[in-house]
Queue: 2 jobs
Job 1
Amino acid sequence: MAHDCSSGSAAILHPFDARGVAKRFRHAAIFGALKALNPGETMRFCNDHDPLPLLEQIEQVFGQRVTVRYVARSPGEIVIDFSIT
C-alpha cells in the first residue's frame, strides 16, 4: 500500500520528499527543515531507502527533542514522521 508523503493526521504536517533533492544536498536540507519546525509540528519524510546513518545523526544533534515514527518501512518506500517536542 503506497503512502502519500503529504497526507497524515498530525496537527501540523510538513511533507519532505527527499527523492526530489540532489543527494549531495539532502542531509543539509533535512537538518534545515527539522531546525525550522516548532514544537508540536511534524515533518513527514519520504525516501526510497531507509536512512539509518541519517537517523543516527539526527539523534546526535536533536536528542530527545525529535520523535521518530515509521509510517511505512518497505523496500523502495520509506515514510517517517519526525515530530518536534
Job 2
Amino acid sequence: MKRAIIPAIALLAWSTLSAMPAQAADTGYNVWTNEYSVSRQQLQTAIAPQFPRKLRYMDIFDVTLSNPRLGMLPAENRMNTVVDAQIANPLLLQRPVNAVLTLSSAFKYDPATRSLRLDAPKVDKVDSTDLPPQYAQQLTALGNAAADQFLRDYALYTFKPEQLQMNGKTFEPGKITVEQDAVKVEIKEK
C-alpha cells in the first residue's frame, strides 16, 4: 500500500498546482526585448490561495497539500515546486504519512491553442521520515510515470489573441527561458 502513496500525492500536488487558471498571472511585455515575462512571485501569488488543499485519492487516502514554494532552475531551464503533503487513512496507516515533494517541469509553446504548457514534468525528490529509505527510488519512478501521464502538455498560461498582434503584425512565442525570478517568452514575427 505504501507503494501507491507517493505517486498519488505527486499527482495530486501537480494537479493542484496546475489547476491555476491559465490567465491567473499577469504578464509583462518588454517592447525592447520582445519578451513576455511572468515572475516567480506572480506564479506564487496565483497558486497560494489554493492551499492548504484537502483531497481524496481513490476514496481511500485523505491528502492535505500545503506550503507550496516555487523556485526557478535557470541552469536546467525548468521551474520547480516544493510542497508539503500529509496522507492519512486510519484503516491502512497507523499514523499519517508526511512527505515533502520536489517536482519540476520545463515549458513549451503550443501554437494551436496559444498556450504555454508544461513539458517533461517529473518528481525530482521525495523526502519522508515516515517511509523506509528503500522505497524512495521506486516511489520516485512511479511518481514520474504518473506526472508524465497526467501533466505533460498541461496549459499553464494562454496568450490572448491581442497579445500576439501589434501594429497590424502577427507574432508568436519563440524561445522560453526560465530565469532566476521569472519565465520569459520571446515573441517573434510570424
